[in-house]
Write a structure and sequence with these properties.
The protein is an alpha+beta fold. It is built from two helices and eight strands, in the order ααββββββββ. About 30% of the residues lie in helices and about 30% in strands. The mean pLDDT is about 75.
Length: about 150
């Protein structure tokens, strides 16, 4: 009986000594990880900020077509300077959302004007504008603007 108690006590002492050694190494690892994390944070603070838009894209990413008519190039309210972002069509009201190159959203309802053109109709994938001369301009979600005599 005394012999089994002695073995249990020795086993318990060995077990506790192993736990202490593991705890010490764990604290050291924890400190090493914290030091590495602090270094990473310092490196991140020293990095320069990155612009939100891609400076290498140029005007290609913001223009709807590469061959914009000359009378439309200087007009900032030209349909060629906008992208179709959304369409909502209902029984009573219909809306479209256009986004310009600066990221500003413009929401129009049927009958409203965008510069010199008027929103007259919309389909599931495109919006139709009417120019003063009776021609129509159609913009779709692929950012293609085309002119037509009818729609």
């Amino acid at each position: 009986m005394n012999f089994s108690k002695l073995i249990n006590i020795i086993f318990l002492v060995l077990l506790l000594s192993f736990n202490n050694s593991f705890a010490d190494s764990h604290d050291k690892k924890k400190e090493e990880v914290l030091e590495k994390a602090k270094e990473i944070v310092k490196d991140m603070e020293e990095d320069e900020e990155v612009p939100l838009n891609d400076p290498f894209a140029g005007n290609e990413g913001t223009s709807s077509m590469s061959n914009i008519p000359s009378e439309e190039q200087d007009n900032e309210m030209s349909l060629y300077n906008f992208k179709l972002a959304g369409l909502i069509s209902g029984k009573d009201y219909s809306y479209i959302s256009l986004v310009n190159s600066g990221g500003e959203v413009l929401t129009l309802t049927l009958g409203q004007y965008l510069g010199e053109i008027q929103l007259v109709d919309l389909r599931l994938t495109e919006a139709i504008f009417k120019k003063d001369d009776g021609k129509f301009m159609i913009i779709d979600f692929n950012n293609q603007v085309r002119e037509s005599n009818d729609y």
